[in-house]
Amino acid sequence: MIDVEHLGKRYGRHQAVDDVSFTCPPGTITGFLGPNGAGKSTTLRMICALTRPSAGSSTVAGVPYRRLPNPARQVGVLLDAQAQHSGRTGRETLVLAARMTGLDRRRVDHLLELVGLTGAAVDRRVGGYSLGMRQRLGIAQALLGDPRILVLDEPVNGLDPEGILWMRRLLRDFADAGGTVLLSSHLLHEVEAVADRLVVISAGRIVARGAVDELLATAGVRVRAEDQAALRRVLAAAGIAHRPSPDGEALVAESGAQAVGRAAAAAGVVLLELRPAAGVEELFMALTAAGDSAKEAA
Amino acid sequence: MLWRLTTTELRKMVDTRAGLALLGVTELLALGIVAVQLLAGKPATWTFQAFFFGALTPLGVLLPVLGVLSVSSEWSQRTALTTFALVPRRERVLAAKVLAASALAALAVGAGALDATLGNLVAAARPHANGSWHVTEATFGAALLVMVLYVLLGVGFGTLLQSSPVAIVVYFVLPTAWTVAGRLVSWLHDWASWLDLSTTAEPLTRGAWPAGDGWERLAASVALWVGLPLALGLVRVLRSEVK
């Protein structure tokens, strides 16, 4: 459980994060989205007590991060896979973390294996690691204390396609076992594939938050029929507002798929396509563009 | 908790090639000084105490660099992000670094004693050697005190400046510049006798306790060169944003 309440961060005259509130319940993966510089990393650092908020507060597992007696046991944190000492080996990096947090050294070998760092790589210096290997090492470090909560900033950056699938499964299994995951990413398809819930920020403010399905439903459904003219009549008769889709080949109905499908079926109109009008990508573009114009208007 | 952090910090000083190389070079220099004393010094001056303080000279100059790095590398290598996420009470991490640096200083005194023992054993086999093993409590006490002070000076600079290259340069340049200025500029001279660590700690480097108001002078210079950087550095570390 992660609880963020009215977090704000001001640098001089620049409001980097403004009144951000959201909750990450156990058993879910929350995708934290926003354009570069929107305040994602600052928010994650505030949650982990690395940056002092100017306003608001946050708790992890019910207490402020700073008051966790041994944070690694509760929450695994990976904020920047590049922030590793280049002169230490991968194994040594984990051994230090295990020692600092009083964990059994045997977990180090177990985790190296779990994240797929094996063989000679383990005892090579991190300076020679690829970004993908550093991400794996960072994930191993985050999982070291067997936490119930994960906070990850751009965890799939630098991973190859096989690594991305591996990460997806790992996070899904973690959440399905009752864990809480908060992850930021600028790879929208990645977030769409893995997240149950979204928090979208733009220019430091939240522009949308909620379950992925519900957020996508607000964009309406795309519907295409054998006879488009008949479909328009049916929708109008059923009182369902609609407009042409951007590509002009279908309609976007401002309603749920069920209502549209029922209306078409009752009138005997054959549907060829009926699906959410927007993916996470379109939703993101629409939301963050709105945020930008709001900022300009202010 | 603090014990665990302290032993981890000690390990972090030697688990990189750079740290290990610095230790190795320092110890080689210490042995080198003992060798030079044996080759070039007069046999009458060959005593354990002379070899001991000879060996401690390079240790006292270079080990503070490890003290600097133990803090500054957290920023230069950006490991502070991990360290303070694992231990959000940052003052504990700093306390562990101070303790680890002090332990390193004690180990250095031990290494110096071994080097000096070696030197005096070699000397004893040569003709006309003094070969005295005479030591007093001040021999080890003063050596330990001055070594701890210099290593903590390094920790203080590293904590305050949060950058390895800047802190190392300042560590080598600033105290020396201050010493030179104190000798050259007459109106600084009185200040220097109180605030120049190399002057006030000089008796310690001979194995003697400070005499007269020497303790007060030592305390004043330690407050300026060790206490102040550590205190300001602590405030900076506690307040700064870790990225």
Walk me through the topology:
The complex is a heterodimer of chains A (298) and B (243).
Chain A (H helix, E strand, L loop, with lengths): L1 E10 L2 E11 L4 E5 L6 H8 L7 E6 L14 E4 L11 H11 L5 H9 L16 H13 L5 E5 L7 H16 L3 E5 L3 H7 L2 E6 L2 E7 H6 L3 E5 L2 H11 L3 E3 L6 E3 L3 H11 L3 E6 L3 H18 L1
Parallel strand pairs in A: 3-7, 3-8, 5-6, 6-7
Antiparallel strand pairs in A: 1-2, 1-4, 8-9, 10-12, 10-13, 11-12
Chain B lengths: L1 H13 L2 H24 L7 H29 L3 H7 L3 H35 L12 H25 L2 H21 L1 H10 L1 H4 L13 H26 L4
Helix pairs in contact in B: 1-5, 2-3, 2-5, 3-5, 3-6, 3-7, 5-6, 6-7, 6-10, 7-8
If you had to describe this structure to a student in words, what would you say it looks like?
The complex is a heterodimer of chains A (298) and B (243). With 298 residues, chain A is of the alpha/beta class. Chain A has two domains: 2-215, Rossmann fold (3-Layer(aba) Sandwich), CATH 3.40.50; 220-277, 2-Layer Sandwich (Alpha-Beta Plaits), CATH 3.30.70. In chain A, 37% of the residues lie in helices and 26% in strands. Chain A has helices spanning 40-47, 90-100, 106-114, 131-143, 161-176, 188-194, 212-217, 228-238, 257-267, 280-297; strands at residues 2-11, 14-24, 29-33, 55-60, 75-78, 149-153, 180-184, 197-202, 205-211, 221-225, 242-244, 251-253, 271-276. In chain A, the strands form three sheets. Chain A has a six-stranded mixed beta sheet, sandwiched between helices. Chain A has a four-stranded antiparallel beta sheet with strand order 11-12-10-13. The radius of gyration of chain A is 23 Å and the shape is elongated. Chain B has 243 residues and is mainly α. Chain B has ten helices and no strands. The longest helix of chain B has 35 residues, at 90-124. Chain B is globular. The model of chain B has no long low-confidence stretch (mean pLDDT 94). At the A-B interface, helix 2 of A face helix 1, helix 2 and helix 4 of B.
